[in-house]
């Protein structure tokens, strides 16, 4: 029996067809998929904090409305992703518990502070830019609910990236102080954005198996290179420099060469020792605890709403 199921799974992957919730999958596939989707969902939810920090201090009503909409979109992305994880048998409450107890990861990038309003623009440009670069290929991921969620998420992330770039363009046309803010934010977010793609291929334990299962379509280093190639002309057009003296076009490779990422910093941030890890998780835990009454009220309402139908039986 298991052999037939395994054969069906292998054939589905080999023919680039989608795995759906009712299909049999090997334990490793389910575990990897839940891990990746949960980490992604947690990133969207924790990712609301750095920009959310600026909603009350946005410089105009227009910028406030845009930022509110963007942060709300991230919440929506988290919700689709938790739903996708649930189709694999994961429990949303347990996933949240794993996040706030530090047992599950979220993207390293959200452990850096947002010091000025230019950071909002740079997050849109570089962080959403890196997210799109990583997530467009995931629209072809082998797990149906994840791939479909990714289509909508990528459309919204494209809007996010454009709003960030437009904000930076506006600031670059402003005063020297505003241009300096954009340059400073770019300097702080460039390297952490490169870290978003994960460790180098040689030290990525999951990539080979995830590629074989069609969960990931490109390696971490391939996507990082694609992001660098995409960002250099955008930085030129904006009029900012990227903080990497080794960045130069390599005609032979047809790509930009770039300097070494500080992987020790990455490891420290992932381990919980980044500048804002403690604050981010504490804030998420408090929001979860403060929201307990909403969950209880919704459950009580659902129970009450079921009662008349049950009484009729
Ligand atoms: N941060 O073997 P690999 C967003 C972990 S975008 C923290 O290479 P894998 C949008 C990894 O989980 C950000 N941990 O792992 C937004 C693994 O952990 P393990 C979220 C990281 O999975 C924008 C270990 O290191 N996007 O939120 C990171 O094959 C603006 C070994 O790594 C996604 O999650 C990291 N940067 O590849 C929101 C995309 N990198 O095994 C608000 C989907 C790696 O110890 C504002 N995910 N780790 O449990 C993926 O594509 C993959 O999971 C990778 C990692 C590429 C992130």
TrEMBL record:
It comes from the Bacteria. The keyword Oxidoreductase applies. Keywords: Oxidoreductase. Coiled coil: none annotated. It holds the Pfam family PaaA_PaaC. GO terms for molecular function: phenylacetyl-CoA 1,2-epoxidase activity. The keyword Magnesium does not apply. Its EC number is 1.14.13.149. PANTHER family: 1,2-PHENYLACETYL-COA EPOXIDASE, SUBUNIT A (PTHR30458:SF2), PHENYLACETIC ACID DEGRADATION PROTEIN PAA (PTHR30458). NCBIfam families: PA_CoA_Oxy1. This is 1,2-phenylacetyl-CoA epoxidase subunit A. It comes from Jatrophihabitans cynanchi.
